[in-house]
Design brief:
The structure holds 2 protein chains of 2 kinds. By secondary structure, chain A is α+β, with helices and mostly antiparallel strands. Chain A is built from 3 helices and 5 strands, in the order βαβααβββ. Chain A has a domain of 52 residues. Chain A has a 5-stranded mixed β-sheet. Chain B has a single domain, classed as Aldehyde Oxidoreductase, domain 3, CATH 3.90.1170.40. Chain B is 33% helix and 35% strand. In chain B, a hairpin with a 5-residue loop joins strand 9 and strand 10. Classes of the chains: A alpha+beta, B alpha+beta. Chains A and B meet through strand 4 of A and strand 5, helix 2, helix 3 and strand 9 of B.
Chain lengths: 84, 156
């Protein structure tokens, strides 16, 4: 199982803070996970997760290059940060 | 040399004098403390701000700030560093963030404090949502100038 989290504007636009997704050959990396969610959750999700400034963190570390997921990972999607 | 690192993410306000005292911790080798305090502005990009809500990613926030401080410690002879960042509902003039760094000399304290703040702004997972006097909400957009400030530390 993958624990998928959404924050800030992305969380509001999806009306979803977190969900569990079965780890499978359709969810082996962040890109395929986004594609899986876009196909299964409808147009709104496809549009929101298709934003090009979306940031992805795996197990609480931001990933900037292609990398694979393993079962049990925590995967978060969020917009650029605005703290401080 | 290991540095004393403290990170706190909290809803409550903080006392700058008390934080500075704790940073020093009675160590007489320290010759300098540099601090930064950030406040909530009453307007942002011509919008008035009545209240602000700060969201974060619990766990990753603490971890990312810890990593930023460790980078600073690896780069300058820092003796102690503290970051306090508030989350939840805030109002204009409220204190929002405090960074304090102690070192033997001012140069390291100034540089490490600025480095930590610049990286915190572009890396730590916080998001600001502003509400105006009518209650209309808008998420604050990230600024390219903040990324540029963090980038310049890559080419010292």
């Amino acid at each position: 199982m993958l624990k998928v989290l959404f924050f800030a504007r992305i969380r509001e636009e999806l009306d979803c803070a977190s969900l569990d997704v079965e780890f499978s050959n359709e969810t082996t990396d962040p890109q395929s996970l986004v594609q899986f969610l876009s196909e299964h959750k409808g147009d709104q999700w496809a549009q929101v997760l298709g934003q090009d400034n979306l940031i992805c963190a795996i197990n609480q570390t931001v990933v900037e290059e292609a990398c694979s997921l393993v079962d049990g990972d925590e995967v978060a999607f969020f917009p650029p940060v605005t703290g401080g | 040399m290991s540095a004393r690192i403290t990170v706190s993410i909290q809803q409550d306000d903080f006392d700058v004098a008390q934080l500075q005292q704790q940073l020093l911790a009675g160590d007489s080798r320290e010759g300098a403390i540099a601090t930064f305090t950030g406040y909530v502005r009453s307007s942002n990009e011509s919008r008035s701000v009545e209240t602000m809500e700060l969201e974060h990613y619990p766990g990753m926030t603490e971890k990312s700030i810890q990593e930023i401080i460790e980078q600073a410690v690896g780069r300058w002879p820092v003796m102690a560093a503290t970051v306090v960042h508030r989350v939840g509902k805030l109002c204009p003039s409220d204190q929002i963030v405090w960074v304090g760094v102690s070192s033997r000399h001012r140069e390291a304290a100034f540089s490490a404090c600025e480095f930590i703040m610049d990286y915190l702004k572009s890396k730590a997972p916080f998001w600001k949502k502003e509400l105006d006097e009518c209650g209309a909400a808008s998420w604050v957009d990230a600024r390219e100038s903040d990324d540029a400030r963090a980038q310049r530390w890559k080419n010292p």
